[in-house]
Specification:
Structural class: alpha+beta
Distance between the termini: 48 Å
Shape: elongated
Largest sheet: 4 strands, antiparallel
Strand content: 35-45%
Strand order of the largest sheet: 1-4-3-2
Number of domains: 1
Radius of gyration: 18 Å
Amino acid sequence: MTIIGFNFTSIKAERSNPIKGKIGVQNSVKIEDIKESDLIVGSNKNKTMIFEFIYTSKYSPNIGEITLKGSLVMMADPKKVVEVVTAWKSGKKEEKNLPKDVMAPVINTVLNKCSIMALQMTREVNLPPQIQLPKVKVN
C-alpha cells in the first residue's frame, strides 16, 4: 500500500472571541468517506482508495476553530481495496471497523499534513498554536 496523493479541498480558520485566561484545544480527524477508484498509468490499471477527511482544531471556551477538509489517495492490492471499501460501506462508516494496517498510515499522514497547515493558519488569525512547540530553556 502506498499513499500517492493528498490535497486540501477546504481551509477555514476563524477566531470568534478574544483570548482570555486558560484555553483548551481539541484536535480531531474524521474519515467522511472512502471510495474505490482506478488509476491508469500507461497500459496498467491500478486500484486505489480515496479517503475524504475532516481535521478540526477547536479552541475553547468558544475562542475559535480551524477546519481542514481534503482527500488522500492510497494505491493498494485490488483485494485489499475491495475489503476496505466493503467494510466501510457495511460497517456504519466508522474507522474502527477498518483494517489497522490501512488506517494507521492514512490517519498519520492526515495528522502530519493537517497539523502543519493548521499551525500556519493559527498565525493568520492570531490563535495560539494547536500543538506544543519546542522551547529552549536558558540556565
